[in-house]
Structure formats: C-alpha cells, structure tokens
Amino acid sequence: MNPLQRKLNKKMDILIQRENSGQLNRKNMNRAIRRALQNKLALVGLGIFLTIIILCFFAPLFTQYDPLKINIRVALQSPSTAHVFGTDTIGRDIFSRILYGGRLSILIGFGSAVGASFLGVVIGAWAGYRGGWFDFLMLRTSELFLFFPQIILCLLLVTMVGQSVGNLLGIFIFTGWCGIFRMTRARMLSLREEEYVQALKVLGVPEPIICYKHILPNALGPVFVNITLSTAIFILQEAALSFMGLGVPLEIATWGNILNVANNLNILKVNWWIWLPVGTMISLFVLSINFIGDGLRDSTDPSQQG
Amino acid sequence: MLTYTIRRLLIIIPMLILASFLVFLGLELMPGDAVSFMADPETLANMDPARLEAVREQLGLNAPFLVRYFNWLLCVLKGDFGYSLTSGVPIKQIVFNTLPATIELSLAALLFSTILGTVLGIISALKRGQMTDNVLTIAGLLGMSVPQFFIGLMSLFIFAINLGWLPIGGRLRPGYESFIDRLPHLILPAVVLGLALTAGVMRYARSSMLDVANKDFIKTARSKGLSEWRVNFIHGFRVAMTPVAILLGLRLPTLIGGSVVIEQVFQWPGIGNEFLSAIRGQNYPMVMMIAFFMVLATMVSSFLIDLVTALLDPRVRLS
Amino acid sequence: MAYGIQPIPRNKVEGETVQQEIVLRITDLHTNFYTNMRCNKVLKGISLEVERGKTLCIVGESGCGKSVTAASVMQLIPDLARIESGEIVLYDNGQDIHIETLDKYGKSMSDLRGSKMAMIFQDPMSALNPVYSIGFQIIEMIRQHTKISKSRAKEKAISLLREMGISSPETRINDFPHQFSGGMRQRAMIAMAMSCEPKLLIADEPTTALDVTVQAQIFSLMEKLKREHGTAVMMITHDMGVVAEMADDVVVMYMGYIVERGTVHQVLKNSTHPYTVGLMQSIPMIGKGKKQKLQPIRGCTADPYDTNPGCPFVTRCDFSTQLCHDHMPEEVTVSGNHKVRCHNPIQKGAVDART
Questions:
Q1: Neighbouring chains of C at 3+ CB pairs within 8 Å?
Q2: What residues in A contact C82, CB-CB < 8 Å?
Q3: Domain edges within chain C
Q4: What ipTM, to 2 d.p.?
Q5: What range does the domain containing A126 cover?
Q6: Residue of chain B whose alpha carbon sits nearest to that of C70
Q7: pLDDT per position as a tens digit, A213-268
Q8: What is the pTM of this model?
Q9: Are B314 and C118 inside 8 Å of each other by CB?
C-alpha cells in the first residue's frame, strides 16, 4: 500500500469510529465551514481590493502632494519620510501619482468592462433570439475580431483616432465586446426554447420586450463574474499601452504611464522606486480581482467533492 | 481528416480576404494615398505635380474603390507591399528581415508554455488538494495577474543587470552564431512571453485531467486490467489534452499580441518592434502591412492547431 | 400465480440439486463508502454464488447496492471506500483467489481484471474511449494479458467482432466508437470483455440504454456465450423482465441486504419476501387490460444513514411486527437453495387469498 492509501485508510478508520459512536449530523456544519475556508482566497482578494480602492479614491487623505506638480530640485530622490515612494525624473511625488493614477486606471478598466459587457449583452441577446442574417453577420464579425490580437487592434485604432482617455475607452469597448457577445448568444439560444417564450409570443408581446425584458435577466448570471475578470484584463491592457507611450497621454497619471520611463535602462537599474511600486500595485490589484473572480466561480460550482 | 482540412481552409480563406479588405480600408482612411505609399519616395520628391496627376490616372487611383482594392490586392499577392514612409525601404524587405525573429520568439514561448503548463497541470491534478496543488494554483493566478512587461522589467533587473547571468537584450544573428550561443538571448524574452499562457494552460490541464478521471471509460480501462500508468496516460491524458489544444488555439492571438510588448522590453528585433516604431513614426503603410501580417500569422497558426486537435480527437473531425 | 411475469422454462428440472461448478462466492461482504465526511454502510453482509455457465441476476432499486457489489468484486471502488470485512473468492482451476486480500492498485488485482473476470457497463458510448479505435482498445487488452504479436492480436480481435455479430469486422475494427450504433457498440464492448476468455462476466445494466429489439439480440448473444464458453454471468438490473428472461438464479437486494435469493423459479413464482412480492405485484400484466390495478410498494427508501437496528423494509411492509422493528432477520431456508431474510415470510397461497 502506498503512503496515500495509508493516509486515506486512517481517515476512513476515524470516520467509521465517529459513525459508530453516534457522533452524527456533523454533515451540515462541516460543509458550511469547509466552504468558508475554501473561500479564504476570495476573502484575502476582497481585502486587498477594498484597500486599494480606498487608497486611490480617497487619495487626498493619504497624501498631500499634487501628482502633477513638477519640482526639478527634488528629482530622482529615493524613498524617504518626505516622499514615501520617492520622486520621479521631474520631481513629482510617486506615491501620490500612484494613488491618483490608480483612480484613472481602475475607472478605465471598469468602465471598459461595463461598456463592453453592455454592448456584448445587447447584441448577443438579439442575435441569439432572432437568428437570421443579423446573427450571421454579428457572429462572423466577432470571429474576425477574435482573430486579431487585441493589442494590435487597439494600437491601430489609437493611430487612427489619436490618444485620449475617451478615445481609449471607446477603443476598448469596440474591441472587447466579442467574448460577452458569444456567451450571451449561447445562453440565449437555449433559453429561447423555453415554454414561456412561446406563451409570450402567442399573447402578442412585441419581440424586443420578450427578448430583453423576459429572457435576458435569466442569462445575466455569468455576465457579472465576467465583468470582474474583464476589468482585470482591461487594466492590464491599458497598462501595457501606456507603458509603450501609446495609451493615455503621458501627462496624465495612470499606472502604465508611470512605468513608461522604465524603458530607459539606466532608470531601470538605478531608480528602482519609480517602477517597482507601481508594477506591484497593478499586480496586487489584478491578483485580488482574480482571487475574487475565482471564489465567485467556485461558489457557484456544484461539483464539489467531499 | 482530409475533408476536415478542406473545410477549415474554406473558412479561413474568406476571413483572410475580409481582413485584407479591412486593411485596405484602413489605408484609405489614413492621410496620403496609394501613390505616396506604393511609389519610391525618392522618385516622388522629384516629380512635378502634373506628372504626378498623370501617374495617378495611370495607376487607376481615380478609379472606383473596388478597382483600387483589387489592384492593391494583386500587388500584395505579387509580393510588392509598398515602401516605408520614414526610411523608404521596401516594406517587404523589412518584414522578411524581422519576421523570422518574431517567429522564433513566439515558437519558443509556445513550446515552453505548452510543455511546462501541461506538466504542472498534471502534477496539480494528481496531487489534488495537497500543498503542491495549492501552491501551484496561487502561482497560476499570479502568472495571470502580473503584467507581462512588468515581469520582463523585473527579470531584466534581476537576471541581467544584477546577476549578470543573461544578456540585457537583443538577439544574435543566426547564421553567424550557433543556436547554443544564441540561446541566452532567447531564454528571458521567451519565458516572460510564455508565462501568462503557461498559467492558463496549467489551470486548464488541471481541470481537464480532473474531469476525465471521473469518466466511465477510465473505469472500463481499469476493469480491463491495464496498469495504472497506462490508464492515466494512454487513456486519461490523451483525452484530457483536447480541451488544452483548443485553448491554445484561442490564446494564440494574445501570444502574438504580447510579443509586441516583449520585443519592446527586450529590444528583440522582431516585427513587433518595427510595428511600434512605425506607429510612433506615423508610418501608415508599414503599420497596416505589419498588422495584416500579424493577422495572417494568427490565422495560419490557428489553422495548424485546429489540425493538431483533429488529429488528437477524432470527434472533432465531424463538427 | 396471478403474476404478470413467468420465467422462461429451462432444461433443468426444478428442485434438482446438480453439483455445478462455482466460479465466484461472496461471503458476508461489508463495503463502506466514506463521502461528505460520513460513513455510508452500502453493503451490510452480502452472500451469493455464481456458477459456471449460469446467469445470476442481482435485482433491486437504485441505491440498494447492486452496482457496488459488482464494483467490490472487481475492486473498482473509489479511493474513499473500502471492503470492511467478508470474503470474495474466485475459483479458478483449483485455485482459491481471495480478492478481498489483494491490493486495489496492485499487480495481482490488475492481472485478474480482464483475464479471469471482465465487466461491461450500462452506456457503451461513455464506457469506450472516444479517441481510440475499437481495434486499438481490444488489442490493448489482449496484449496486456497474453504475449502475442500485434498482428495475431488483430486477427483475434477481428474474429471476436465477427463472433459477436458485427459485420465486415476487418474494416470496422479501425472505426471509432462514435461511428457505431448503440447495439453494435455494446456488442463491441462484449467482444472486448470476452477477449481473454474470462471465467466471470459482470454486466451492469447492459441493456438499459438500448431499445427493446436490440436488448433481445444482446441477450441471445449472452446466452450463446454461456453455452459455448461456459462463462458465468453476474447481471445487475432493476428490470424484472430481464430477470425473467435471462436469470438462472436471482438475488433480490434492498438497502444493502440480500432479502431473498434462489433459482429464478423459486424467487419469481414462489416469492416469500414482502419486497419481492411487492415488486412482482407492481408489474402490469399483458392481457389483463387497462383497468388492472397496479399495486406499487408504498412509501420510499429510507435514509441510508439511518441506524435503526431492525429490518430496513419495515416502514413499507404490510406484514411487519414489533420484532421486525427491533431485529434484522437472519437468513432462513425456504427450500433447497431458496433463502429469505424475513421474520414473516409469505407462505405460498397466502398472497392469492389476499388478491
């Protein structure tokens, strides 16, 4: 018998003893406790997430510096009691830039996620419900979009329409609706066969109302989990674009923009405080979102084995 | 198998044509027109306007949109991609100089992620619920959360600058140096590029293995008296890999897009780097052609992965 | 007897105790499943025998433990389950093999599986690996247990498919499971199971997923195998019709106990346990018309974790007494090999009087 089997054998011996000695009905309690513990990860994620949100959106409480204020005299100072994360190449306080920049990065990420999901849901619901040429057209379009690497598409569009926060939001939404579209459409395809749909049609309810008011709410479950995860993806994407200088215009602080200077090997080598804290901040935030998303998905998964 | 291949081709080819149409549309929307793109910039500077107008007429630039599209398409198919606005060098030359570097990088990253991700995913599944599994799960989540370029910067900082184990960037020319000599330059960018994909593959492989372990045909395989090894690998693993192959196909565009960023960080002389300089230099013809090439690359590799999936799983050949 | 099902006449005269060769004997088997941090006593003391060339049907409702019995014999129970006590003995050419002593994952056990005893499952579509051809899966099994070359194994596989009634086996052998129809798939599975001439064939509801005409074909195929190879068959089913058609011996299970066992004539025509009687009475009779009253067994199966000391059927039994609540009945002999576990077994004629 290998060690794993021995361990299992011991576990089974304990269980049979417990059963025989009448310690019953621990079933419900154990299940609940186990569930709570499994979501340890999600709780940690939630904690980190809320901490960062509070830091960023209540920034004036945590830092007195203006993120845009240039002060060459204190340029490139390493972290000190005056400047928690030091200063950058033109003397701006990095900590405050991270906090204020965080607002923008998070808003762009979340805004794009909500916008793309909205677009994807609206189009997907109608395409799935009606079918026909609209569905065919939208499906082929989404396939084409999915073949394009999203970054390339974004870069192309940025070249065409120019850099600005509004433009970036628009571009993200325009390139990001396909995933949600497919998901909603698939749900719609199965839901439209339900009997209440037939009943509504017979009663003469107009089709758009059937589609959006009656069927759609049933399909929305996974969409919310998806919004959380999309936020993470869009934040990473904005960071990558801004890092290359092709996202939000460089004067405005976002997490990616702050990292832009790290392209310079010298800064990378010597002034670690300019890029390390920002990168860690992005990673922590996205990580926390992924923890929460995983926890959400696990708690709706019925296939948990004892 | 053959019918499946043909069917896939019949889907890809119209897509390519559609993509080329969109590329041409993009070109039309940019400032400047086909003359400035397709003619050699030196000659262009020396011509007088009347002659330019005549050339325009001759080239059919005043012809309707579709005719211009077909002319352009024919040029592209013949191998004439136009000239770079900034350097005047034929785009074809630039593309063919830099494409191999990107292919090398992407292939290395793909290989690395597939192998490492699959192995780790299987280990994770076999040791389900134990410490190894938990550690790997968190590592996977980390891999998906940290921005690729940040990992790149950190790895440069640690391995290249501080420890000095690996070179800081660039790529040695093949043909001049052996592959072993070139390897140190390839390692860091390939690993960093493949890290996010590795995390995804690992999670997928793990859940796929766990899924398959409960299936009936595993019970049958055991009841036939086959050894545990054979049951888990010949039967279990083989079936579990189909969803992973499909995932790889879906994530390919992300890999190719990611190479743009990584080439920037590591100064890897690939097509992505050229793409970025073209964008910064407002070099529109270059931008569009490279974009088109990237889509081409995505479609071709996606097609190849579809074929591999069909080989692995005969049920796919029906769909 | 006013029952709708009659056992099909066999050649053997009823009551004859011919000394047949026993292939498998299970004695007082207890198997527990440990899931959800609980201990579920699935089998609570099972004893049965399967004889060479004969079919033993295990019949009962879902959850009674019939599939677990088969799984215990093949040692295919999950990690968090084990055989607590009892004996499972396979008799092979004078050797007594105690299966309960063998390691689940050990080599001796995997050597037994396939070569001495084989199993076929309910749904052949999910029971066969979809990415390998039928030929591959049969040949792999043959070569696991016998040392022959690939080409010889292939020939053997082709002749097996032909024997099971699959036409053009030379081409079909390279086909994948999804390219076969349901009945053909089951035949292929049986071919695979029989490929190493096992002494015992365990069939877990082999025809539930097939339609009735195909069902009949599969059964005649299995009869042929019994006749020509002398295979002992242990068939698990919930369908009394299958029992009447196929069984030589019957075992009726309820909540982990065997409540009645004997030959098919004894158990079907002379049912003594109230559960068996209930089962027989709840089957509609052909010819009696639409107005016949079906008498389902009242109530439903109890909670498996219920630890009342008495008979588990007591809540649904019309003949229960205080004794039944307090003590689980021992097995008593009705006649010959006909045994029942009941304090108040129903006498022949008693049921007629009630109806």
A1: A, B
A2: 9, 12
A3: 126-197, 280-354
A4: 0.83
A5: 42-299
A6: B223
A7: 888 888 787 888 888 889 999 999 999 999 988 888 888 888 988 888 887 777 77
A8: 0.80
A9: no
